[in-house]
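Box 3.1 A note on notation
Throughout this textbook, protein chains are presented in two layers. The first layer is the amino acid sequence; the second is a token string describing backbone geometry. Keep the layers aligned when reading.
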Amino acid sequence: MTGKKRNIKKARAICDLYATDKHTIESCCESEGVPYATFYCWVTPCRKGYVQDIQELYKKACEERQENRKRSIEERKLSIGEKALVALEKKIEGWTWQETTQENGKATKIVDKFQVPDTASIIFSLTNAFEDDFKNRQNTDITTKGKPIVDKIEIEIVKQKNTEHGNT
């Protein structure tokens, strides 16, 4: 096998490993016994040792790496979302478990216990799933048209002062 074919074979292995998005390009080069500086020369035009085929392999590997990264992020989001939904469902419905008490290393009593549903989780679910029917909001409508709010006691005090001074 000629040197160029051997280099392309090593570069293909480096690029395939790099495309998985689990390794840096430096660690991929190291795993194939190729110094990173040499690989850099292979893929960089205007460098001694530049090989267009290797550059194309590297570009393709970079594109695959980006796609794998996007796919991985989406998969993690789905996984987290599924786990959150399962946990929320469990909190909404409540769950049972068995509790065992032991004496001298032997089980003496097994008790079935039930965790009651979590009210906050129920409210959260209803307000997000059925926004129009279940609104967790308080509306306070006070219109004073720019005047300060006064209560009856203040009004009585003002009336008393006005009558004392002769104002009606």
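Residues 3-77 form one domain. The chain has two domains: 3-77, 94-168.
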